[in-house]
Amino acid sequence: MALFRRNAKAVTPLDGVDLVLADLDGVVYKGAAAIDHAVESLNGLGESVRVGYITNNASRTDASVASHLTELGLRVKPSDVVTSPQAAVRLLAQHVPPGAKILVVGGDGLVDEVQKGGFTVTRSADDEPAAVIQGFAPEVGWTQLAEASFALQGRSESERPWVATNTDWTIPVARGIAPGNGTLVSAVHTAIGRLPLVAGKPEVAIFEEAVSRFGAKNPLFIGDRLDTDILGANRAGIDSVLVLTGIDRAKQLIAADANSRPTYILEDLRGLTEEYPTTAFSKDGSTATVGDATVRIAGNDVEIVAEGSSELNLLRAACAVIWNSGRAIYGLEVPERLYS
């Protein structure tokens, strides 16, 4: 996957795309409120290309997510929403027989999908469940985590599978950044010494579910996190957008490893329909220019040659030259101006 186009005709990120998949937290909304320009941008896209929504949040059903998005002003049906519980139940079905009893650690969204999958729900390890499935919900606490630990301890993966909807360490909410499902999964892992099978981003199951459902051949995924959204899209072979409205910003982008680099970097979703600038490299690859912004690497120093008129293009140029160098970020001196 090309990270930047060299000396190519300028295009928009949507050229040739037949499906746009948007993450929710940090892309469409933070907490209950829509992010600036998200609703109008996505509604506009929906007039010419299929738009779907993909989320690792396991606490709500696809219908409740669609209802929330509709309240924000988006035109969305439940079938447009792909959730990590849906992917997790499909993964679960590969490891346990139909109708099996499943210990659910999570909220109504996860319970609903487990039941729709034809399984029986229990909340107690004493019921000898065939497997444990775990997802985030604000009400999950010690009691549910302990039940998962009791059910899994002393059992191997083949004896009693453990499926996690996702392992996001954090989740953006209206008041700031809060612990995500990864912290809850880690608590169970610490108690039992096992790792779960994971359905959500950055694993590919949730992307495969989305692409299959919408019949896409050339999808584009929009996310705000490198370690889940962009890594997952890259693993699934899908072009990606990192939008700077959520978790990861300039500092994380500049330091992104080769597996977590997006195809496009946008300030907000308006950039989807705007011409995306090409990147010009010097012959030796030590200098990158995007628009009128230029950044180079001289020895161990990353230097701003020209700030240009766009902070976004300056960031794109910095990412391009650093990523193109193949060098680890800790071996370079990066001016604070590029990531502050």
- Specify Rg, calculated over alpha carbons: 21 Å
Number of beta strands: 19
Structural class: alpha/beta
Question: CATH homologous superfamily of the largest domain, by name?
Answer: HAD superfamily/HAD-like
The fold-level CATH name of the largest domain is Rossmann fold
How many domains, as an integer?
3
Top-tier CATH class of the largest domain: Alpha Beta
Mean pLDDT: 94
Q: Which strand order does the major sheet show?
A: 5-4-1-13-14-15
**Number of separate helices:** 10
Question: Strand share of the residues?
Answer: 15-25%
Spatial gap, N to C terminus: 28 Å
List the helices and strands in order: EEEHEHEHEHEEHEEEHEHEHEHEEEEEH
Which residues sit in consecutive blocks of at least 5 with pLDDT less than 50? 1-7
Shape: globular
Q: Identify the CATH architecture of the largest domain.
A: 3-Layer(aba) Sandwich
Approximate helicity band: 25-40%
Main β-sheet description: 6 strands, parallel
Helix and strand topology:
Layout: E1 19-22, E2 29-30, E3 33-34, H1 38-45, E4 50-55, H2 62-72, E5 81-83, H3 84-92, E6 101-105, H4 108-116, E7 120-122, E8 131-134, H5 142-152, E9 162-164, E10 170-173, E11 176-179, H6 181-192, E12 197-198, H7 205-214, E13 219-223, H8 226-235, E14 239-243, H9 250-254, E15 264-266, E16 279-281, E17 287-290, E18 293-298, E19 301-306, H10 311-325
Parallel strand pairs: 1-4, 1-13, 4-5, 6-7, 6-8, 8-9, 9-12, 13-14, 14-15
Antiparallel strand pairs: 2-3, 10-11, 16-17, 17-18, 18-19
